[in-house]
Design a protein that fits this description.
By secondary structure, chain A is an alpha+beta fold. Chain A has 15 helices and 18 strands. Chain A is elongated. Chains A and B meet through strand 9, strand 10, helix 7, helix 8 and helix 10 of A and strand 9, strand 10, helix 7, helix 8 and helix 10 of B.
Amino acid sequence: MVASAAALEALDKDRDGALKRLFALLEIRSVSTDPAYKDECARCAGWLAEDLRLIGFDASVRPTPGHPMVVAHAKSPNADAPHVLFYGHYDVQPVDPLNLWETDPFAPRIADVNGEQAVIARGASDDKGQLMTFVEACRAYMGNGGLPCHVTILFEGEEECGSSSLPGFLAANRDELKADFALVCDTNMWDAKTSAITAMLRGLVFEEVIIHAAKRDLHSGLFGGPAANPIRILSNILGRLHDKEGRVTLPGFYDGVSELPDDIAAQWKALPFDGAAYLGDVGLSVPAGETGRSVLEQMWARPTCEINGIIGGYTGEGAKTVLPAQASAKVSFRVVGKQEPAKIAASFRDFVKANLPADCSAEFISHGASPAIQLPFASPALSAAREALAQEWGRDTVIVGSGGSIPIIGELKRELGIDSLMIGFALENDRIHSPNEKYNVSSFQGGARSWVRVLEALAK
Amino acid sequence: MVASAAALEALDKDRDGALKRLFALLEIRSVSTDPAYKDECARCAGWLAEDLRLIGFDASVRPTPGHPMVVAHAKSPNADAPHVLFYGHYDVQPVDPLNLWETDPFAPRIADVNGEQAVIARGASDDKGQLMTFVEACRAYMGNGGLPCHVTILFEGEEECGSSSLPGFLAANRDELKADFALVCDTNMWDAKTSAITAMLRGLVFEEVIIHAAKRDLHSGLFGGPAANPIRILSNILGRLHDKEGRVTLPGFYDGVSELPDDIAAQWKALPFDGAAYLGDVGLSVPAGETGRSVLEQMWARPTCEINGIIGGYTGEGAKTVLPAQASAKVSFRVVGKQEPAKIAASFRDFVKANLPADCSAEFISHGASPAIQLPFASPALSAAREALAQEWGRDTVIVGSGGSIPIIGELKRELGIDSLMIGFALENDRIHSPNEKYNVSSFQGGARSWVRVLEALAK
């Protein structure tokens, strides 16, 4: 029997034990944002380190300025095996409003939810259930001949309150945490029967612009006509950032943006995703992005320019015939592929300045610039994981994108220089951050089995 | 000797008496906005009615819900003479900051200001000095054979605090106040040696528009791309309200806008007005109105579209990746000539609606719509007054416009159906509403002589 088959068999035999361990973890009230639960967070880290030691990891609780990290190492018997860094977080969201919970959020139970057996508890899905899928896979391997990859585990306790200790911790322990790539289990499946790997995250460039015109507010009766109006100038500039096809007009904006590989494009096209229903949920119906692109493409694979805020002149009740001295807007760009944040910020600023009357000026404030994360579609690790998941779930793995960023992925890339495979088994309807959070038993058990297959595939 | 020559001679002989009467009026603390001065306002109205009765007017103080009006009538011996309604206001602005006054604001005195003799007091220019120019002209006529026109006088006591009683008073006394046209003395000369008649006031159409998109605020990571952004839609609409030549693009916007008559255009072109200095005072330098139009034309004779306020999304410190549910703007139009306010509001609303995505909507709020006031340039009254003033001041009278509205002119047109000749003798540097308000003695004496000539000319 090959190691993975033995590990899968071990997982299937010890389902009750795995659930019991998950329940023990879920009973710990590790709410990171509330100082009242500081000791519970420490206890949670201790519980995980102890469990990992029981499996055979060299595990320790590591202090930070905030809640502690858990770091654990285990070698594969195969010295040449690749080295993976697994990331999860043991802290959970607060439970309010408590009255909307059907039972105590920290008294996990199994219940039928829409015909599926699910674990109900705060953190069941986000992220204790998810991280335990990996721990259980490691347990199964280490009790049956050893891991196919060298494994380092990093569990964070501040993901739900800003991860403020994470960058410093990564930087301070770079050599210890360095690996060939990271595995992150904090994302969703496509649906309850279809696995997914998140391979692309859009980056974000956030600019604020303030247009200055006259040196004081003016009366539109006296000055309306000859005097520059900064709201008019700003509107005119912002109104020309998109063409009629919804494309961003800034010079060079699409440099570094690639078309999807044919197989991914075909997969997305075939997905049972109803763009109209997605928009319909929020009262909209017309996809506002680039003409000819699907809603999924517009969200996951295409860059945007959005105006997130604008203000100028009189904004109270009624009317005031004022020509204001200034007007301002907050403008952000979601970036993809190899778009360069600094170039996009510069192109925006140049565009604004090129469209100013000679007697007006523009002031700019940067509120951050981070590039997109994009796993090479052709990378062997992505292909191997995709195939392994397909074997487990019996259908093709969906390669998905995310319209927003996931900070840990950027930190791992920036601080350790490694790419992440984002593989998760949560579902859209898991009610994370909400009352009665749940994690399907099939997610938990299928997740653990998935990691067994993925670790084997990555080692080949 | 003709009547006007006798009246002019009488004015010149009684200069000291006229100043003494003006001083007595200026000593009354008729601050209309401060309830503490209610009795002073009533005393001021009484003083004026008494002075008019002394001259021979049938004068009375008329109560209103606020401060009283003064109404007075005097017939011309010539039964066929035209009938004029003269308007002025006896209330004054508050005096704060009192410490910036060189002497008591209600202890009028004559002083040298930049080489010119001037009366210094609150209300010296706005509007007690101005209204007394007309009273003195009437006094000079009525003591020397009678008025060339039938005269009704209306003095208001609430001009500086919103004129809230005026529309009702005009409507309730329509028959008594009806005249062939009105004379209003509350405007400026072109300069200390050049008289001016204000013949055009821009009207105002004020619209508020609210663009509604999604039914709640959205996260730009999840929805940026496919979801409509109301700020982007609003900016795009507002940014297209002007073309590259600064003209307003709304269909039919320029219907009813005429070019200036050649003589007025030539006069404005020849005026010693420095558009660059006018803009330079407020930190600007590039005329922002229609290309090819002078600053004076842009202010006085051309319609505008201005955005007076805009707000949407996140406008606090820092960044927030929100796609707001709505965005709104306050948009006003200064209108001229025969532009129809209702049509302009409708054209704006149609333009907004025509540029909305199908899943967004627009809500509109009207904050008022009033047409422009434009005296027919060829009207006999305007020509007569212009010529009479030119005779007095020894140089051509400038026909000027005003970029903003003067509410009384609109009320007289709306309630009584009569046009107004706006003839005033104040100067730009009279410091009205400010400490050390002044009225040049030459304005006061030349103003009274001007009215003698204007009344004679209007009677011809």
